[in-house]
């Protein structure tokens, strides 16, 4: 285990890290699987005094991408988190393109699963657009708040940064996604859009709060093994670049 060395982000432009690639891979993997496996299913849970409560199954795992986003910014700094967000955005766009092409290909006469493929992998352009825009803006808002708060707090009170950045990031995500995806859509009243928006936002923030001890463990492990504690002093916070 190394001793943490406090450095400014601008001094780490060409640094090599032991675990960064694995954290990046975990982020992109969770992002893609949450969109492919979890997004299309509406599950139900029975709550005391409430009864059955439906929810999108993707919410169980998608918030993990925000936890990993917090870890990336906290340990490696905003510039590397920005690079990972762009990688995730490109991966989601390619997934949407690949899904469209595969579903659109004419099926062989002997292959009878086309209808199932269309249900699972069929992409509604409006929802894809909403998802990509919300993810991109929400993740960058999350990373920016996380990095700024770390400098403001002098690296203390990690819990305040993880929860505060998630409040903002998930708020931006939800405020973009639900109106853009469902406002005026069949079966979606303005009231329902607002209710679902705030419900999903509250659930995602709640997940972040519950996972705070896990975040502490991962951040502590990575800072010790990487041997650095990056502060975003003098960082260019523009989202429109991928270079560290």
From TrEMBL:
It comes from Sphingomonas parapaucimobilis NBRC 15100. Keywords: Cell inner membrane, Cell membrane, Membrane, Transmembrane, Transmembrane helix, Transport. Involved in the import of queuosine (Q) precursors, required for Q precursor salvage. This is Probable queuosine precursor transporter. One of its GO terms (cellular component) is plasma membrane. It holds the Pfam family Vut_1. The lineage of its organism: Bacteria, Pseudomonadati, Pseudomonadota, Alphaproteobacteria, Sphingomonadales. The keyword Transmembrane helix applies. Belongs to the vitamin uptake transporter (VUT/ECF) (TC 2.A.88) family. Q precursor transporter subfamily. GO terms for molecular function: transmembrane transporter activity.
